[in-house]
Request: fold
Amino acid sequence: MTSKKKELFIDLDTIDPKEVVWLWEPFIPFSMITIMEGDPGVGKSFLAMQLAVQVSIGGELPDGQKVGRGRVLYLSAEDDAAYTIRPRIDAMGGDPSRIRVQGDFLSLDEKGLNALMREVKRKPPDLLILDPLFAYIPAGQDIYKPNVIRQLLSFLKDIAEAGETAVVIIRHLTKAKHSKAIYQGGGSMDVIGAARSAFLVCEHPNDSSTKLIVHIKHNIAVRGQTQSYEIVGEDGGWASLNWLGPSDITIDDLISSEGAPRMSALDEATQFLRVFLKNGSEPSTKVEKEAATRDISPKTLERAYKALGVLSKKKGKSWFRALPDEE
Reply:
């Protein structure tokens, strides 16, 4: 990976002080990395698309903040652009001419990161969404090794600064329990360390249909008030996001000294398979790789296959997995 050469040491008086500029104050700053995290299936991608829509049309955020009309670069390894992203963006009232997506899979190796930097410099986006981060890690790289993550995040920080772009990285939570919310996300601690802001997307403890946006890291501003929303289905059409307003619930209310409640490993694996295979069969190797990015072990994945009755079928020289109702 190559990024702009910087001097190792410089005098502080040569640095001009800057004020933070916000896409969504105090949750998402420009020119910096923000983490959005939560359990699989809670609606992180849906929320990310809503943010993309508001930027594309110059809309409004839940607390009344106006968003300047801008451009979005939306990179998703989980949602298909034609079957999911475009229909949802249209249903939410977004402007697809101002939202760019990947035409082919992009691995964040040296070649991919340089391509991403060129794209950001060519058409600087106001918002760049990476959903989820670990799906873009090159094969064979250990997401728990600090040296792997530090180099990647350093380059993403350069990209954020080069385009004055708000970079939002989405990641899943681990199954392990921790007493602090910032330790719940998957991968090395360096991921949350590189972010200047982070928020948790989760279900309301008393109402699973209500989703919460809870500020868990706020280095450059006071903690933002929790916001709430629901995903409303429309007859014969795509679902929409309906903001419900602020909530008094804080991260302290959600996480006890024993850690936040987590889905069982098997429940998480079965939910992953239902979502990942819902559009038809997928290569077994692809299923296994995606499961690994979510910290689903091979043993748990096999248990989930059996629990759902997932089918295995050979096509040519490759094996594929499919839900039983897909055959």
Q: What stands out?
A: The two ends are 44 Å apart (CA to CA). The longest helix spans residues 146-163.
